[in-house]
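Worked example 3 (structure in, sequence out).
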């Protein structure tokens, strides 16, 4: 059966290799030297990076050009995520994506603004008809920025296949990106995968200490082990002209000279992206903010990036043979780093084992779990957990400490709160928050239905029913009441809500809606007078801001502009 599986995986890989990928069809989306700050498939929080990030020389406003001819098929503007993003569909069925944009080209900007005003909202998603916004190869379609969840000015760029799966852009060319340095190895770990297994007489995660040899190959002093084990690596890749610690392209292992396991970042589907939390050592990441890539596959989440593996990448160490395990990390330019690990079988009855806290609540992934005590109930659906788990649940009044934050969750779990004892007035101010170890409480989107409040969460932790009675704060940034603003391009206001965050806002001038773009990173609302909706000399500005539980603040001011 295993041999059939291996043959099937090899067949799939050959089919992929023979796929007729267009070469030199897609051109660079920027007109500056190409330097990357992010690579495809990088291990990010809860997801794989779906594209490559181009540096924009530390500034915003660089011309972004169409990577190939086609038409704008989707436009999305949101506070978080990709911020302002364009999606272009091409005649060959592929799609390119351009994210974190500052603004669109004039024609696209006019189209978007008209619909933002029609719908009276900043965040919007549009799907223009195929002939509405055609673009030509290397036509300017937008300008680079820092919108959405971007942490610095850059252009996020993707190529998606006809099934909307992100693919590694390097598969299509982009030879202009220079990379002459091999991946950098940081740490190596071994893991036990069975109860009787050990690595150097320890169970669980065991840190190894490779030494770099004269030929550049890293070597580990002989590992003494028994039973089922596997390995994990912490590493990164640096490209030329940049100091960013990017992801590598491939991790390949061999056992006694034969291919054993490989992760190759060519393509993935968004549906499998959250399985990243299974691919990495999630507990280690939550504690130390560093990601260990586990060099093995799991039954419940067969990732497309794991295209070659024997026995799911797990080694069964016994006394029949000697073992030589080799790991090679490679970037897309074929620069590589190698680690060699000799393994010797050593049985032992004296193993330092990890302790497992057993509780009354034993949950298996293939079964749902429900728990109800006092004012709180918990529901965990099937396959929300990755492995058998003893849940630690502590309910105290209107607070629940739900298991261990170092345990990953794949599907949303539901926590319910009985609020029947509260008045209707109090219910309006109540919400469910996640309480951090240092005391800060973060708002969780709370669904309110009569006497029951519920939240859906994808992290274990401490959740509490609490109240927000504070109104948002509104502060004008570049004007004061009764000021002349004839020479001003923008009207700027700062809005803040430190308890539950901004839920919504609406701005008007003389009773007419005006568009204000929201940047959550600076808590700033900005109106562009070039929208030409403010046409009177005397203008009464009104801004209504509501937080996530309904507390509302109103700011009003008068300003003047020459007609």
């Amino acid at each position: 059966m295993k041999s059939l599986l291996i043959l099937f995986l090899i067949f799939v890989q050959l089919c992929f290799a023979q796929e007729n990928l267009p070469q030199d069809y897609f051109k660079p989306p920027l007109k500056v030297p190409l330097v990357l700050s992010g690579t495809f498939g990088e291990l990010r929080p809860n997801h794989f990076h779906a594209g490559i990030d181009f540096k924009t020389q530390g500034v915003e406003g660089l011309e972004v050009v169409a990577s190939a001819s086609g038409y704008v098929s989707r436009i999305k503007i949101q506070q978080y995520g990709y911020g302002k993003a364009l999606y272009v569909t091409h005649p060959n069925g592929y799609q390119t994506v351009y994210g974190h944009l500052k603004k669109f080209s004039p024609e696209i900007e006019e189209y978007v603004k008209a619909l933002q005003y029609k719908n009276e909202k900043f965040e919007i998603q549009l799907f223009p008809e195929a002939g509405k916004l055609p673009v030509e190869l290397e036509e300017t379609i937008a300008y680079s920025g820092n919108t959405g969840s971007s942490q610095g000015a850059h252009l996020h760029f993707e190529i998606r296949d006809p099934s909307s799966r992100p693919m590694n852009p390097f598969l299509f060319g982009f030879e202009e990106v220079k990379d002459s340095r091999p991946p950098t190895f940081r740490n190596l770990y071994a893991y036990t995968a069975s109860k009787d297994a050990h690595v150097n007489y320890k169970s669980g995660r065991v840190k190894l200490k490779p030494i770099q040899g004269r030929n550049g190959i890293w070597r580990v002093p002989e590992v003494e082990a028994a039973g089922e084990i596997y390995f994990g690596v912490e590493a990164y890749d640096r490209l030329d002209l940049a100091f960013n610690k990017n992801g590598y392209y491939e991790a390949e292992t061999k056992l006694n000279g034969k291919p054993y396991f490989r992760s190759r970042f060519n393509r993935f589907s968004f549906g499998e992206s959250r399985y990243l939390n299974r691919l990495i050592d999630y507990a280690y990441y939550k504690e130390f903010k560093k990601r260990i890539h586990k060099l093995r596959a799991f039954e419940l989440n067969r990732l497309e990036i794991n295209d070659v593996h024997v026995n799911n990448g797990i080694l069964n160490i016994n006394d029949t043979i000697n073992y030589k395990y080799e790991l090679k990390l490679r970037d897309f330019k074929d620069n590589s780093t190698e680690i060699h690990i000799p393994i010797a079988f050593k049985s032992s009855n004296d193993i330092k084992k990890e302790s497992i806290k057993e509780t009354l609540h034993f949950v298996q992934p293939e079964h749902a779990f429900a728990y109800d005590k006092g004012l709180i109930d918990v529901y965990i659906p099937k396959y929300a957990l990755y492995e058998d788990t003893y849940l630690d649940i502590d309910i105290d009044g209107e607070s629940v400490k739900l298991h261990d934050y170092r345990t990953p969750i794949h599907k949303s779990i539901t926590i319910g709160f009985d609020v029947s004892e509260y008045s209707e007035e109090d219910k309006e101010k109540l919400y469910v928050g996640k309480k951090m170890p240092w005391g800060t409480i973060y708002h969780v989107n709370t669904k309110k239905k009569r006497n029951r409040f519920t939240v859906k969460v994808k992290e274990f932790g401490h959740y509490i029913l609490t109240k927000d009675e504070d109104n948002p704060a509104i502060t004008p940034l570049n004007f004061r009441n009764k000021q002349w603003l004839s020479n001003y391009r923008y009207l700027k206001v700062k809005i803040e809500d430190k308890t539950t965050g901004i839920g919504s806002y609406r701005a008007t001038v003389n009773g007419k809606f005006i568009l204000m773009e929201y940047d959550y990173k600076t808590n700033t609302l900005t109106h562009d007078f070039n929208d030409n909706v403010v046409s009177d000399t005397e203008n009464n500005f009104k801004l209504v801001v509501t937080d996530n539980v309904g507390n509302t603040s109103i700011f009003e001011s008068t300003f003047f502009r020459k007609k």
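Notes: Helices lie at 2-18, 106-119, 276-279, 282-288, 424-429. The chain has a mean pLDDT of 94.
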